[in-house]
Design brief:
This protein is of the alpha/beta class. 19% of the residues lie in helices and 34% in strands.
C-alpha cells in the first residue's frame, strides 16, 4: 500500500515559461514529483504581455494547461493587487468609472480563459497594505465587490485574502483577524486565508511566536494557506533545520490546509532560499529534508502479508494511494483509491493470478540523455567594416576600457579604438563579479565600430566594456550580427565568417541577463542562450589580412565554483601569437564577463564566475582567439 500523492497542499511558485517549455523537461519532472500545487504568478495584472485593449496571458494559460495534464492544482496569485505600486502603468492612472470598467473587463477576460481550471485565487493581494481600488473608486467595500463578481463569473475556485506581516512579523495580526471577520460577515465567498511566510534571511524562525499568531488567525474559523514560504541561510544544514521547523509547525496545525514555497530553484529565487540548484538540478540539504518529510515521514507505505487473513487496517496520511497485490512474488493486481478526512473501506478483487506490468519507476533527478538544442543564424547581417591604416607588418593589439556604467537595467558604457586601429574583440564585465549584466554589442556610430557593455536588471554595480584594438597593414574586419537564438536552454545563434576571414573576437548580448556566454571557433562565433524568455544575439569580428593570418582558438579549464573565481588562459608561447579577442563561456549560465589583463607581462584572457555553483556545476571558462601573421 503506497501513498502516491498528498491531499494536503504542498506547492511552490514556478515560472510559466519553464513549465510550458519542453527544453526544461527535467525541471518540470522535478516540479511534478515534489509538489501537487503550483502558484502561477504570471496571471498578475502587472505581468500582462499584451496591451490595455489586447491583453495577453497566454504564457500563464499554457502553464495552467500543462500543470492540469499532470494532476497539479493551479493557484492564481493575484487577480488584483491592493498596493498602488503593484498596478500596470495604465491602470495606475485610472479613477472612478474608467477604473471600474477596466476591472470588469479584466474579470471577464481572465475568467474566460481560466474558468474551471484555477483552484484558488488571491482576489486582491495585500489589502492590509494598500487600498488602491477603494481610494480610486471612493467605495470602501470595493474588494468585497470583487469577490462577488469573480464568484459569479467562475464559481469553481476558492477565493482568498492574502497578506504579509500577519504571522512572521505579526504587526498586522489582529488587523487581519478584523478584516477576515468583516469579509465573513459580508458573505462574499471568502473560502480561505493566505499567510505570506517569508522569514528574514539569516534569522532562525521563532516557532513559538509564530504558533501563537497562527492560533489567533485560526480562531476566525477559515482554512489557512501558507504562501511564499522562505527561510534563508548560506549554510544549507542550518537552512534545512529552519525549513523543517516551519514546515512541521504548519503541517501539524489542524487549520492549515496547504503550504506553498516562494520558489524552489536557485534560478527563480536566491540560492540562500532555494531547495534545488543549477542545471544539474541537485537538492541541497534543505531540499533533501523537504523530500524526506513529504515522501517518508509524512507518507504511508505498508507491506502486509495475507497469509493470516485478507482484511487489515492501515492508518495513513490523506491523499491518493496505489495498492499492489503480489502472488508468488509477482504482481497480479493494482488498484487505486483516495483517502480523505473520513475513514474508508477499500475492497480489492483479484480476478487473475497472471502477472501484470506495473508502471515504470521514474527518477526525475537522473541526468537526462541526448538533450538537443536548436541552432540558427536568424537575421544575419553585416553592420559595418573597418581597415587598419597602420603600415606595420607586425600584428599589435592593445586593450581599451570604457568608464564604468551607471547601475540599473540597460545602462551602458562604450569604448572605441584609436585612429589606425580596428576593433578586433569586444567583451564586458561587471565590476562587482555579479552575473546581472546583459553582455556586449558591437555597433557603428558615425561610421566607427563601438564596443558597448550593457548592465542588467537588479544590477548592484556598474559594467565596463573592453575593446581589443589591433593594427596591421592590410588588416580588414567585417562586423556581423545575428539573433535572436531560440529560447531553449543551450540554444545557439551562429555568426559565420566567410572568404578566409577569421573571427578575431566574439560577443553575446541579451536583454534579460540570462546568457551562457560566447563560444569561439575557427570559422564562426556562437552566442548561447540560458533562459526561455528572449534568446540571445551574437556578434563577430570577421577579419583577414595579406599576408594571411594564422589563428587558433583557445579554451581554459573551468573556474572554481565561487563568485569571483577566475579562469585564465594565454596564447601559445614561442610562436609570436597575439591575443585578439577574449570572452567567457558558462555552460550553466551566469558569468560575470571577461577582460584581458597583463599577468607577469603576458596578455591573458580572464573570465569571471558570477554565481555560486552547486554540486558539480561548472563555473566559467575563458575563450579566446590568438593570431599571428603567417610567414
Amino acid at each position: 500500500v503506497d501513498h502516491t500523492r498528498h491531499l494536503f497542499g504542498f506547492g511552490t511558485a514556478a515560472r510559466s515559461d519553464f513549465i510550458a517549455n519542453t527544453d526544461y523537461q527535467q525541471y518540470r519532472d522535478i516540479l511534478y514529483n515534489l509538489f501537487n500545487s503550483v502558484t502561477v504568478a504570471d496571471y498578475d495584472w502587472v505581468r500582462d504581455q499584451g496591451t490595455a485593449s489586447n491583453p495577453d496571458f497566454s504564457r500563464a494559460a499554457a502553464a495552467t494547461d500543462e500543470l492540469l495534464k499532470h494532476g497539479v492544482k493551479v493557484r492564481g496569485e493575484s487577480f488584483f493587487s491592493a498596493r498602488t505600486t503593484a498596478q500596470p502603468t495604465w491602470v495606475s492612472t485610472l479613477n472612478s468609472q474608467p477604473l471600474r470598467n477596466a476591472v470588469t473587463e479584466r474579470i471577464n477576460y481572465v475568467t474566460g480563459i481560466t474558468k474551471g481550471k484555477v483552484s484558488q485565487w488571491v482576489v486582491n493581494n495585500q489589502l492590509l497594505h494598500g487600498r488602491f481600488y477603494e481610494d480610486r473608486t471612493g467605495e470602501p467595500k470595493f474588494t468585497q465587490q470583487l469577490f462577488k463578481a469573480i464568484r459569479i463569473a467562475d464559481p469553481f475556485p476558492e477565493l482568498l485574502l492574502n497578506d504579509f506581516d500577519v504571522v512572521v512579523g505579526g504587526n498586522h495580526n489582529l488587523g487581519y483577524v478584523d478584516q477576515i471577520n468583516d469579509f465573513k460577515s459580508a458573505s462574499v465567498g471568502l473560502k480561505g486565508v493566505g499567510i505570506q511566510s517569508q522569514f528574514p534571511d539569516f534569522t532562525k524562525p521563532d516557532i513559538t511566536l509564530v504558533k501563537a499568531r497562527l492560533e489567533t488567525l485560526a480562531a476566525a474559523g477559515l482554512p489557512l494557506w501558507i504562501t511564499q514560504l522562505s527561510v534563508g541561510s548560506s549554510d544549507e544544514h542550518q537552512k534545512a533545520d529552519w525549513y523543517e521547523d516551519a514546515l512541521r509547525l504548519y503541517f501539524s496545525h489542524p487549520s492549515v490546509e496547504g503550504i506553498s514555497f516562494l520558489g524552489f530553484w536557485d534560478h527563480e529565487v536566491n540560492g540562500n532560499n532555494a531547495l534545488l540548484h543549477g542545471y544539474t538540478y541537485k537538492l541541497d540539504e534543505a531540499g533533501k529534508r523537504f523530500q524526506r518529510l513529504i515522501k517518508q515521514d509524512w507518507s504511508t507505505h505498508v507491506k502486509q502479508s495475507l497469509t493470516s487473513g485478507t482484511s487489515f487496517t492501515v492508518r495513513g496520511f490523506r491523499g491518493d494511494y496505489a495498492v499492489v497485490v503480489y502472488y508468488k512474488g509477482k504482481p497480479v493486481q493494482r488498484s487505486t483509491f483516495t483517502l480523505e478526512k473520513a475513514d474508508k473501506t477499500v475492497a480489492i478483487v483479484v480476478n487473475s493470478t497472471t502477472e501484470i506490468q506495473l508502471p515504470p519507476v521514474f527518477d526525475p533527478f537522473a541526468p537526462p540523455q541526448n538533450v538537443a538544442f536548436a541552432t540558427s543564424s536568424a537575421n544575419l547581417q553585416t553592420i559595418g567594416q573597418a581597415t587598419s591604416t597602420s603600415q606595420s607588418q607586425q600584428l599589435q593589439c592593445v586593450s581599451r576600457r570604457s568608464p564604468v556604467s551607471a547601475i540599473g537595467d540597460e545602462r551602458t558604457a562604450s569604448i572605441s579604438c584609436n585612429t589606425g586601429e580596428v576593433l578586433a574583440g569586444c567583451s564586458s564585465f561587471a565590476t562587482n563579479n555579479d552575473w546581472r549584466r546583459d553582455g556586449e554589442q558591437v555597433t557603428f556610430v558615425n561610421g566607427k565600430a563601438v564596443c558597448t557593455a550593457f548592465n542588467g536588471y537588479y544590477s548592484s554595480a556598474g559594467v565596463q566594456a573592453e575593446a581589443r584594438c589591433c593594427s596591421l597593414r592590410t588588416l580588414q574586419c567585417r562586423y556581423r550580427t545575428a539573433g535572436p537564438s531560440g529560447k531553449g536552454e543551450g540554444d545557439e545563434v551562429i555568426i559565420p565568417c566567410e572568404n578566409n576571414e577569421y573571427p578575431l573576437g566574439c560577443g553575446t548580448w541579451t536583454y534579460d541577463a540570462e546568457s551562457a556566454g560566447t563560444i569561439f571557433t575557427s570559422v564562426f562565433c556562437v552566442g548561447q542562450n540560458d533562459d526561455p524568455n528572449v534568446g540571445v544575439y551574437g556578434y563577430a569580428s570577421c577579419c583577414q589580412a595579406t599576408p594571411s593570418l594564422h589563428c587558433v582558438t583557445m579554451y581554459s579549464e573551468f573556474s572554481g565554483p565561487n563568485v569571483g573565481d577566475r579562469a585564465v588562459l594565454t596564447c601559445p608561447s614561442g610562436y609570436s601569437f597575439t591575443l585578439t579577442g577574449c570572452n567567457y563561456h558558462a555552460p550553466n549560465g551566469r558569468g560575470a564577463g571577461a577582460f584581458i589583463q597583463a599577468i607577469n607581462g603576458v596578455d591573458s584572457c580572464v573570465a569571471i564566475n558570477g554565481y555560486q555553483r552547486y554540486a558539480g556545476e561548472n563555473g566559467v571558462q575563458s575563450v579566446a582567439a590568438c593570431c599571428r601573421v603567417a610567414v
